[in-house]
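user: can you give me the structure for this one chain? tokens are fine.
assistant: on it. calling the predictor now.
[tool input]
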Amino acid sequence: MTIAGPDGQREMPLETFFQAPSRTALGPAEIVTALRLPPSSGQRGWGYARRTRTVIDIALVSSCVVVQANNGVCGEVRISLGAVGPIPLRATRAEAVLQGQRPSAALLAEASRMAAEEARPISDVRCSAEYRKDMVEVLTRRCTESALSMLQML
């Protein structure tokens, strides 16, 4: 990503941008001016879901899954989770469950369960940590199913 401010521009990987709750790597008077994503190679499917109390409320939990397909096999997989840790996180162990595999109901269940294990939610006035973990599993499975359906792999 590119960040611009009074002292000029600087580059930084997205992985280091979020630092703590309500804290990013932005300095005083800086803004993000560009995000550069690698070009897509092959077909990709995706799914995104969030659970809220009301339509305009902030998310209690969110999940996003992107899958690249190679001849009916999951290639690159990315699973991102929101509102279940101090910063947005990737469920890398859950990604590894799917990568290089032909999708099956058992495999999707295992990846979704692993994503829930990787989540680090807190309990607050909006809902409990246990509920958030349960919803990570449900939403990640739905998002993975959506991504694979786009690729006609389910």
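assistant: here you go. The domain at 43-150 is CATH 3.30.390.50 (Enolase-like; domain 1). Helices lie at 92-98, 105-118, 129-150.
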